[in-house]
UniProtKB/TrEMBL annotation:
Organism: Microbacterium sp. A8/3-1
Catalytic activity, EC: 6.3.2.2
The protein's name: Putative glutamate--cysteine ligase 2
Alphabetized HAMAP family for the sequence: Glu_cys_ligase_2
SUPFAM superfamilies: Glutamine synthetase/guanido kinase
Function: ATP-dependent carboxylate-amine ligase which exhibits weak glutamate--cysteine ligase activity.
Listed GO MF terms: ATP binding; glutamate-cysteine ligase activity
Enzymatic reactions: L-cysteine + L-glutamate + ATP = gamma-L-glutamyl-L-cysteine + ADP + phosphate + H(+)
Listed InterPro entries: GCL_type2/YbdK_subfam (IPR050141), GCS2 (IPR006336), Gln_synth/guanido_kin_cat_dom (IPR014746), YbdK (IPR011793)
């Protein structure tokens, strides 16, 4: 069974104002001493944390690791009277973000300039293991056309500056300002992929390959395809759902895709970021515009053989049924704010990373 891994990013938010907070002194050192399934590390901003599972084979293991890692970041946030928010973008911001100290992040900040002031974005990244180099490129090409519907299903950043942006994924809009973002082009082979990256480096558009912001790319550290189109997700089940879809689509041998022109994919990513599951996007099986839910059905048809092989079909179907009723993360955030203001939104965000204890002076259970 093909292994996969899940990386989740979180923003520490003030539990009342819902603006980003920097990590307390010594937090980085504490995380480096953690011995647990997966890892917790600091991210680009001092208000950000990232968790990464160990490679997993199945849904149960993935969900168990995610819940454990979320409990750790929830405990850390609780200590600081904050929320570790699994959202693509903060509700509001002071635009006073501090860059985490490292040579790599210093270089990124120099390149981004003023963009860093509100580049407070959290994503979900899914790695799927594929041993053969050239097959990884073919798998990347296969999933490109499905990127818009994957984003539509997982938009979870409707607010910015304390206002409703009218977008399902404001994070995607912020990411699009970067020089290598949204969909990559179709690649002929691995050498073509490497050549395109060399050109970006020669342009000085990026400082190193790890700065690529494409919505899907090949990992430089692992024999994996890394899908990065998703906003951070409210609940562990949302992240696992996205990961299982990625694995099925990347390992599918479907050859029926016809609509994978870069302009169509990027335009569809915009409409998906704007309207979520109410969007019209390009159906990659026909090359024509269709409602997002219609494209979901086509995507399931392409991925069902792999979903069945791995025993994931029932979970994915049930999660889609829940999305039809409860809506995406963006819809749930809007509903929480409308129902009970920022207090309701805070409660929704806090529920995604519940601390394992009630006191503020104990360490988390290993």
């Amino acid at each position: 069974m093909a292994r996969f891994g899940i990386e989740e990013e979180f923003l520490l938010l003030d539990e009342d104002a819902l603006v980003p907070l920097a990590m307390a002194a010594g937090t980085r050192e504490r995380f480096t001493r953690l011995r647990t399934g997966g890892s917790v590390t600091a991210e680009y901003l001092t208000s950000q944390l990232e968790t990464a599972t160990e490679p997993v084979h199945d849904r149960a293991d993935a969900e168990a690791q995610l819940r454990h890692l979320r409990a750790i970041v929830g405990w850390h946030a609780q200590e600081q009277y904050a929320i570790a928010a699994a959202t693509g973008n903060p509700f509001a911001t002071t635009r006073s973000s501090v860059i985490s100290p490292s040579p790599h992040y210093d270089d990124v900040a120099r390149r981004l300039g003023h963009l860093s002031r509100d580049h407070e974005v959290n994503g979900l990244h899914v790695h799927v293991e594929i041993a053969d180099d050239e097959e990884r490129v073919r798998a990347l090409n296969r999933i490109r056309g499905w990127l818009p519907v994957l984003l539509a299903l997982t938009g979870n950043s409707p607010f910015a500056d304390g206002l409703d942006t009218a977008f399902s994924s404001w994070r995607s809009v912020l990411i699009h300002r970067l020089p290598s973002s949204w969909s990559p082009p179709r690649f002929h082979d691995l050498e073509d992929y490497r050549g395109r990256i060399r050109q970006l480096l020669d342009l000085d558009a990026i400082g190193e390959t790890s700065s690529l912001s494409w919505a899907v790319r090949l990992s430089e550290r692992f024999p994996t395809v890394e899908v990065r189109v998703f906003d951070a997700q409210l609940e562990p089940e949302d992240s696992v759902f996205a990961a299982l879809l990625c694995r099925a689509l990347l390992l599918s041998d479907d050859r029926s895709l016809h609509g994978d022109r870069l302009d169509g994919i990027d335009a569809s990513l915009w409409t998906a970021a704007r309207s979520g599951m109410d969007a019209r996007i390009i159906d990659p099986t026909t090359g024509e515009a269709a409602d997002a839910w219609v494209v979901v059905d086509r995507m399931l048809a392409a991925g069902t053989p792999a979903l069945q092989e791995f025993g994931d079909e029932e979970f994915v179907s049930e999660h889609l049924a829940r999305l039809r009723v409860d809506g995406t993360g963006a819809a749930r955030q809007r509903r929480a704010l409308e129902t009970d203001g920022t207090r309701g939104l805070a409660a929704l965000l806090r529920a995604g990373t519940p601390a394992p204890i009630t006191g503020r002076d104990r360490t988390p259970t290993p």
